[in-house]
Amino acid sequence: MNIRRIHLRLGAFAVAAFSFAAALTATAATPRCDQCIVGYYDCRAAGFDYDSCRNDLMFCQRANHCPMVEPPEI
Question: What is the pLDDT at residue 70?
């Protein structure tokens, strides 16, 4: 009977640990849309062409679930 109690406690601990990890993951993935625009301007300042910097911006916006914004051509 003690083994059954141990299994129940281990199961409860596993569920609690999984829930905690899921909560951390959900809060860690907050979108940072401003970093995409900053990355675009840094890319252009480094001398890369408009199309490659635009593609990086669009990828960043999609990955962070940001609203899709077209960059200005500078």
Answer: 87
Question: Tokens 């593609």 appear where?
Answer: 55
Per DSSP, the three-state class of 16 is helix
Token code pair at residue 25 = 């993951």
Residues of the chain with pLDDT under 70: 1, 6-31, 73-74
d(CA 55, CA 50): 9
47 Rama class: left (phi>0) / alpha (psi -120 to 50) / beta: left
> Do residues 56 and 46 lie in contact, with contact meaning Cβ atoms separated by under 8 Å?
no
Q: Is 58 helix (H, G, I), strand (E, B) or coil?
A: helix
Whether the CB-CB separation of 15 and 1 falls below 8 Å is answered with no
